[in-house]
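PROTEIN DATA CARD
Card holder: ABC transporter permease
Chain length: 243
Origin: Egibacter rhizosphaerae
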Amino acid sequence: MTAQVVWTELKLLTREPLTLLVSLLFPVVLMVLLVGSFGNDPDPDFGGVGGTDFYVPVYTAATVAVMGLLGIPTHLAMYRQTGVLRRFRASGLSPLVVMAAQLIVMAALVAVGVAAMVAIGFAGYDLTAPASVPGVALGFVAGTLAFAAIGLLLGSVLPTARAAQGLGLLLFFGLFFVAGGGPPPALLPEAVNRLVELTPMGPLVDAISAPWHGHGVDGVALAALAALAVVAGALAERRLRRE
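Structure generated from the sequence above:
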């Protein structure tokens, strides 16, 4: 049953070109533009690493975030708006199956986007390999679970797909550019950097960037992401069960 729902979700997602465009192409295109400008020579503003090595982990996190803040909420809100979730419930389909399908689809799309970004970084921009591939993978998985749960929660409460799309874009771009997607944190006011650490984007970037740059696994960031996944996932499941 879950496999059938996943396949249906994938087919439906191909009918949402804006979501696919923003989710898969935007981080890759912006990464190419920025790393082409900064190169990859070590720079104190980037924490002692080059521009390519700084931005690729950040944009890996951005690919996870955009699916969680935009892709899933828009898709799920559309289901609620058009009565699809009610039909699922009438057929006896558990909300957990719908949540699992959304998570699997998100993870697959994010993996494609990240793979393309990393391949471009290695091929054309002298990207340095992660110091700890298992550590980066752990951060990626924890971030995907957390942002999928956040996306499910947003999609379960926002009334329409248009509302989910508007709020998702606002949240994503607001968090993205102050969490390292635009100017490096060293050039931002300290108050902004402290604020970012209190948002889901801060732990996500830290969980992926720290092991990539050889600073070891960031246990605090992983714990924050795990807590987000559990709390947001539980609230989303409860809300969807009542839908």
